[in-house]
Amino acid sequence: MSHIAIYPGSFDPITLGHLDIIQRSLELVDELIIAVGVNPSKTSFFSIDERTEMVRESVAALPSDKREAVRVEAFDGLLVHFAQQKKAQTIIRGLRAVSDFEYEFQMAAMNRKLHASLETLFLMASDHTQFIASRYVKEIARMQGDVSQFVTPAVQARIQGKLQEESVA
Ligand code: PNS
């Protein structure tokens, strides 16, 4: 039976930290579905379509043998329902600092209550991506800081475009 995993997140926008988790997950599973979702407790900067497109563009840059094992899909509603629909056995989440732990622990426990056979697998962020968070990337870009070490050039251009749109609106 092939091992299908879901890597869910807001990806608002996708960072080099997310890409690191994606590449490392691909060493562990047969199929990875990157699920771009809605976090009801966050207001997103990019629309779900924009976030999904950015993830697709980033995945397109992976080596072809890796790319074939990845699908990118937007979802709304509960993650456990999406996972069931996709016949996924595992949810993958990245863990950075201790501060991520409580939120992640609670979410994994709730998801497990809702769907007992669905395991959440945590990958520790690599040391070169430990500190990267989409929230700070947006904040730095908004204040004219350089975010090129944190996101791909395509995502950086998207952020600039979005900020320009905001400034003329
Ligand atoms: O990148 P994020 O914002 O930490 O991702 C959070 C996300 C989208 C994975 C989470 O909010 C989610 O699973 N949303 C779907 C709704 C859901 O299943 N909620 C119950 C969580 S216990």
Can you walk me through this structure?
The protein is of the alpha/beta class. The protein contains seven helices and five strands. It has helices at residues 16-25, 48-60, 64-67, 79-85, 98-114, 134-142, 153-168; strands spanning 4-9, 31-36, 70-74, 90-95, 119-124. The chain has a five-stranded parallel beta sheet, sandwiched between helices. Strand 1, helix 1 (16-25) and strand 2 (31-36) form a beta-alpha-beta unit. The model has no long low-confidence stretch (mean pLDDT 96). The structure holds 4'-phosphopantetheine. 4'-phosphopantetheine binds next to strand 1 and helix 5.
List keywords for this structure.
169 residues, five-stranded parallel sheet, binds 4'-phosphopantetheine, 7 helices, alpha/beta
